Amino acid sequence: MKRKLTACMLAGVLSLSLAVPALASETTAGSSAPAAGTSQGEKKASVGHSMIYYGKVAEIRRDAQGKMTQLVMESEAYGDYIMNLSDQVVWIDSGSHTASDPSTLKVGEGIYVFHSPVSTYSIPPQSPALAVVRNIPQDISCAHYHVVEQVERQEDGTLRILTDQGGLYVSVDEQTGLSRYDDGKTFDPAQLKAGDRVMAWYEAVLESYPAQTHARHLMLLPETGSAETQEASQPAEGARLTMELDGKVPNMVGRYEKGTAMVPVAAVAQALGFQVTYTPKGHTALVTVESDSFQVRLDIGSPTIYGVTKIPDAVGMTAPQNYGKAPYIVDPGTTWAPAELFEMLGKTVTLEGTNLVIQ
To answer: How far apart are the first and last CA of the chain?
Structure first.
């Protein structure tokens, strides 16, 4: 297992160095090292679309219907972690370059999880999973999750895929194997476009900026939905949203406003086991939603939402998140806010038509 970790992590070093976590924490006293993703002469850090975690599955959590909802992970290098699962997660067999069957996952198995850069500052931290990579090969080439930002055709006919917020070029040529996640069939890489998700197998990474590597294999992942498809499937403005909270259907509804699922904060939070506090603040107010170890803060009228740790002797907070609409209060005192705020508290938020699922 250590050989697998060492081999694949060599290829992932650059991806990790180009990504900075969305959580600010106290800097080690006396440290003079540059921030992650920043080299000499660079003024900006490049933030990747995902972070990579390697560890063993300690527990598989399921809902009342038997669907996997969380992976509790343990790792000597990265510590304990909880990965929240949704229908958007892809399961990859890295050794065979194919999709993997999640039903065969067992406790104790060593896996990679590519997850959102946004994590809760709880113990253990939680983050939405993006890709679960299994059957990690002994050689250095293994699957890495990327989001396409730009595709360039070179004079020699090769393609260069720009990803990692402009921090990495992945070249594709006639030697690159190609397959689709859904059916395993080949595809035309020239048809790739910004926003497409891919898994790329590569080895050495040239440490330039942007960095450069060559893909031995490229897998096209399912679309999360084009702008036209998303618009067609979105609820109408002002639509009522039914809700499912931790497998239960409460006697309350949400609203769809300006592309955002809005919920009555106190009622939803209490149904999920969180505490809510309202504090007057001049002409506005501060509403907090918190668990035993983490607190999410909502400034009424401000579109940015952030969270802070409650862990004793720990210092840290999330980067401010803008979910598209500012929290507001409706008389006589109901606070409405984007449902995504509960992701900071370790929940997975999914809008399926006009049904909002938080679990």
So the answer is: 32
What are the CA-CA distances from residue 74 to residues 57, 78, 80, 111, 328 (Å)?
Answer: 7, 8, 4, 11, 39
pTM: 0.60
Burial tier of 83 (Cβ tally within 10 Å: 0-12, 13-18, 19+):
buried
Residue 279: what residue type? T
Phi-psi region of 62 (alpha: psi -120 to 50; beta: other; left: phi over 0): beta
Task: State the Cα–Cα distance between residues 248 and 297, nearest whole angstrom.
Answer: 26
CB 217 within 8 A of CB 329: no
- Distances from the Cα of 119 to the Cαs of 61, 115, 126, in angstroms? 19, 9, 5
d(CA 209, CA 16): 14
What's residue 351's pLDDT? 86
Q: Is the pLDDT of residue 30 over 50?
A: no
Q: Measured between alpha carbons, how far is 317 from 309 in angstroms, rounded to an integer? A: 6
CB 320 within 8 A of CB 304: yes
pLDDT in tens, 151-187: 999 888 899 999 988 889 999 999 999 999 999 999 9
Q: Which of 154, 186, 139, 148 is nearest to 168 (CA)?
A: 148
Q: What is the pLDDT of residues 235-287, one digit of tens each?
A: 888 899 999 999 899 999 999 998 899 999 999 999 999 999 998 877 788 99
Residue 24's nearest CA partner among 322, 317, 344, 321 is: 317
DSSP 205-216: EE-SSSEEEEEE
Nearest to 208 by CA among 158, 171, 173, 157: 171
Q: What is the CA angle 292-77-99, rounded to 5? A: 90
Q: What SS3 class is residue 343? A: helix
What is the distance of C-alpha 115 from the center of its chain?
4
Q: Which helix (H) or strand (E) holds 299?
A: strand 294-299
Parallel/antiparallel/unpaired status of strands 98-99 and 159-163: unpaired
As beta bridge partners, residue 127 has 83
